[in-house]
Amino acid sequence: MRPEGAPEASEPGDTVTVPAPPDMATWHRLHPLSPLVRTGRHFVSVGILILVLIFANHGGSNNDFITDFVVIGIALIAGVVSWLVTRWQVSDGVLRIETGLIRRDSRRFPLWQVQAIDVVQTGLARVLGLAELRLRMAGGDASGGRLACLRLAQAEQLRERLLAMAHAPGLAPAGAPGAASPASPASPASPASAASPASGASAGVAAPGPERLLFRVRSQRLAGAIILSRTGAYAAVVIAGVGLIAGLSGAPGAAAYLLPIVVAMVLTVWRQFNGEFATSVWIAPDGLRLRSGLVQTAAETIRPGRVQAVRLVEPLLWRAFGWCRLEVDVAGSRQRRENRSEGQRLRALIPVGSRADAEQMLAELVTSAPRPTLGAPAAARWKAPLTYHFLGWNGDDRYVVASRGRICRKTTWVPLEKVQSIRWVQGPVQRRLELASIRLDVAGRRVTASIQDRGAAEAQQILARLPDQARAARELNRA
């Protein structure tokens, strides 16, 4: 018989409600300077518009100036109204964000579905001591889960508390990722699972704890790597071409129409350098913590079990210096809608580093990293004569690894429990040579492990074996 006042026992499949602290359960507003920071990206454009409105009609009447200031005033009032109608709270394990005046928009973000929580500071936000909190959801758009802006200390504290609540045992429904078993109490995460974010092990409550530095990028090496990358090569060719046109024509203004392309290339190089500058990776009980940025800084946390794939990239020019790049794919969009080009890029844990740095990081991400030692059959030489020697794959009961590429060598590790689909691909040339490829898709959708150009019989065996191995890996992960 249940004592009076005691909570009822939860049935299997029920969602256990984890109450939020009292100060989070009430509705809160963003910082009053949020409208200024959110429009900071377009600050230059707005400034030019204001100058045009003021000076374009210098010969006009006073009514023209009044009209110009009315337009500016309406824009400022719209930002203030947007701030007044935006509020947030955390209740029953769900972050709720409501905004909109005429069209009300109310969004719910279950914390157990959170892939990562980032703290981002633009240049203007750093000056004002503010920061933006971004939630990355599985398959979601990062533009929805945004709190822009909060005080920096408040944003960091809120991130820690949300991550701790997201890791709370029993927060998610039974069968959901990270859900605790109803038959037994949640046990604390083992050291191996805490140190391996790519594993599917479910962690317990992730209280903030000590950090251990895994990697910090060197600024000089980063600059040199960008210059020797494809982006740097494109920028150099464009700038050299514009300079050549201006020199041969004898009139610098002849190349003026190409200046937008030059500016675009320079901005592309700058965004990459600014985004990856001072990248440091720390391991903590709540996962991997990343910090990066020169003008716009970002602090991200990748929870254990959220890494969908790991990719090692070795461009040709980098290999001469022993450099490489290690990237991870996390389910859920990282960038906002207005920056889709950067959203297509993977998150670089090591933007550029030595092979020893990559091996150390890989040991933290993949508990038993197999090597792509199984080469392609002799028939693949006719289809891919240049990349034949770099086509390889291997696997064990937890991971599949595949490699390809000569100019830019890429090696991809995929946890079997993260595999969403397995495809058989056979083109006309492959049918002629009795070859086929097997592709493994994951939730991140930016990485596909492709076991390329295998013999048709071997590909059939792989296709028949991998689904059972993936199922066994998922069951092992739940155990």
Overview of the molecule:
There is one protein chain. This protein is an alpha+beta fold. It folds into 3 domains: 22-174, PH-domain like (Roll), CATH 2.30.29; 218-276; 280-478, no CATH class. Helix 9 (230-249) runs antiparallel to helix 10. The strands form 4 sheets. Strands 7-6-5-11-10-9-8 form a 7-stranded antiparallel beta sheet, with helices on both faces. The chain contains 16 helices and 21 strands. The model is unreliable at 1-18, 177-207 and 333-344 (pLDDT under 50). Strand 6 (130-137) and strand 7 form a beta hairpin. It is globular, with a radius of gyration of 26 Å. The protein has helices at residues 22-25, 34-38, 43-55, 62-84, 123-128, 152-166, 191-194, 219-227, 230-249, 259-276, 316-319, 340-343, 355-365, 380-383, 428-433, 456-478; strands spanning 28-29, 87-91, 94-99, 105-110, 114-121, 130-137, 146-151, 212-216, 280-284, 287-292, 297-302, 307-315, 323-330, 347-354, 374-375, 392-395, 399-404, 408-415, 419-425, 435-442, 448-455. Helices cover 35% and strands 27% of the residues.
